[in-house]
Design a protein that fits this description.
This protein is α+β, with helices and mostly antiparallel strands. Helix content is 34%, strand content 12%. The chain contains 5 helices and 5 strands. The protein has helices at 17-23, 30-41, 47-57, 63-76, 145-151, and strands at 80-82, 90-92, 100-104, 110-113, 139-142. Strands 4-3-5 form a 3-stranded mixed β-sheet, with no helix packed on it. A two-stranded antiparallel ribbon has the order 1-2. Strand 3 and strand 4 form a beta hairpin. Helix 2 crosses helix 3 (47-57). Mean pLDDT is 85; it is low at 1-12.
Length: 152
């Protein structure tokens, strides 16, 4: 899957992996450091893509250890998990800004899209049914520039 990369906002990623883990109350271990560092270079990465990157650094790392780290990171709020319909779960370090995503319907490329309108939750439903809203998740679908050019 191709990934169109946009620069991450400076505030989105803590200076070091160990600082991020400690700030989240997680134990600093070599597998966790490797997973966090892999996510720095792979925004919107699947667990398999993270595992491949981690395996370059730690050849004996298991896919289960990567899933465990990603789950711990998601639970601790230092990683965001997105699940575009029909695609594998993807993980990213850009958190806390309620941004959205655009997914290419041809190649699966994923790109960040800043908040649609206003402050979080960025969208206001016609009826919240008594819920107190904290975020809204929007996925835009279309063709990325490469796929659109190829289709033309």
């Amino acid at each position: 899957m191709t990934d169109l990369r946009a620069p991450e906002p400076a505030a989105a990623v803590v200076a070091s992996a160990s600082d991020a883990l400690r700030a989240a109350g997680l134990r600093v271990t070599e597998p966790r450091l490797a997973v966090y560092d892999a996510l720095r270079g792979l925004p919107h990465a699947s667990a398999d893509a993270v595992h491949a990157a981690v395996a370059e650094r730690m050849p004996r790392a298991s896919i289960q250890s990567v899933y465990n780290a990603l789950g711990d990171f998601t639970d601790a709020g230092i990683v965001r998990r997105i699940e575009p319909a029909g695609h594998a779960m993807l993980f990213e370090l850009r958190i806390g800004d309620n941004h959205h995503h655009i997914v290419c319907t041809s190649c699966g490329a994923v790109q960040d899209v800043d908040c649609a309108v206003g402050h979080a939750p960025c969208l206001h439903p016609s009826d919240a049914h008594g819920f107190t809203l904290s975020s809204a998740e929007v996925t835009y679908w279309g063709l990325c520039p490469s796929c659109a050019a190829a289709a033309a």
